[in-house]
Specification:
By secondary structure, the protein is α+β, with helices and mostly antiparallel strands. The protein has a single domain, classed as Beta Complex (Beta-clip-like), CATH 2.170.270. Helices cover 16% and strands 25% of the residues. It is built from four helices and 14 strands.
Length: 210
């Protein structure tokens, strides 16, 4: 997840394993890299630093990639000597911090995002919100599932750019909350139930969990 702070360029090199006949064999990590190469690529972004771009078209609801999420804990902290920075992390249920793998850590924010993160059994997948065309940059709206953060200045360049992004989903303009609410993670709704119920009452939206 690339955030307004300057991102580090820390590409993961494919890992090769030598088998008994001397022929290199691809590991699971390398197999993932090959699959991703058919779907996305990374290059300089007009939004910020590096970005992730579609190598082919994606339909609404289609999974673009499955995130590699490494837990960050006091016993397994970030490794600055490997250019691991908090701007490439995500914070999930109960404040759980994870360091995102390559290339997902380079997905930029946009106020007109075209993708979101769907959580299944605790793991996140990047999914298309709408049709995404080949060579289009894949973006998330960082305010989804956000609470307790600091406001930051956005430079996404979208026509509806907010300029300043608040530190909580529930501080967004109410029409934008309505637009983005279907993409909230169940764990976020559960942990912010009172704020979510107030949001439903204000907008007249039926409770999808009722």
């Amino acid at each position: 997840m690339t955030n307004p702070a300057e991102p580090a360029n820390n590409r993961r090199r494919p890992i090769m394993r030598i088998v008994s006949n001397g022929v290199p064999s691809r590991t699971a990590s390398d197999s993932k890299s090959q699959t991703l190469q058919d779907r996305v690529y990374v290059k300089s972004s007009p939004i910020q630093g590096l970005g992730v771009f579609a190598r082919r078209n994606f339909a609404t609801g289609e999974t673009i990639l499955v995130r590699d999420e490494r837990p960050v804990t006091p016993t397994r902290p970030l490794r600055p000597e490997r250019h691991e920075v908090e701007q490439h992390c995500d914070w999930l249920e109960d404040g759980r911090q994870v360091y995102l793998g390559f290339p997902e850590r380079h997905i930029n924010h946009s106020c007109e995002a075209n993708a979101f993160v769907r959580f299944v059994n605790g793991a996140g997948s990047v999914v298309a919100m709408r049709p995404i065309k080949v060579n289009e940059e894949i973006t998330n709206h960082y305010s989804i599932n956000l609470s307790g953060g600091e406001p930051w200045r956005c430079s996404c360049g979208a026509g509806s750019c907010l300029g300043m992004i608040p530190g909580s989903f529930f501080e967004l303009p109410i029409d934008l909350q309505v637009e983005l609410s279907p993409f909230l993670a169940p764990w976020f709704v559960a942990q912010h139930r009172a704020e979510y119920r107030t949001f439903l009452e204000l907008t007249g939206i039926p409770d999808p969990l009722a």
